[in-house]
Design a protein that fits this description.
Length: 78
């Protein structure tokens, strides 16, 4: 799955949380985060890498980074 924006990230984390059968508050407890933080992330407001890793750990998930093709780095190709 390709995540290219905070909106994509929030949508994906919401799907993962729901698939795990967790409320935002329950995920917050597992990740040592406030429910409001979970809500903000799921609404696409972004988060720190520390928060992201806490969420992924609590959900039993990980990040995989794939390099783009060289042509994708040409200015204007965003």
């Amino acid at each position: 799955m390709g995540i290219r924006s905070n909106i994509d990230l929030g949508h994906t984390l919401r799907q993962m949380r729901q698939a795990a059968g967790l409320t935002q508050a329950q995920l917050g407890d597992k990740a040592s985060l406030r429910q409001r933080t979970i809500s903000d992330v799921e609404q696409g407001r972004g988060c720190t890498t520390e928060t992201l890793f806490a969420l992924l750990t609590a959900l039993g998930a990980e990040i995989t980074v794939d390099a783009r093709r060289v042509t994708d780095f040409i200015p204007g190709n965003y």
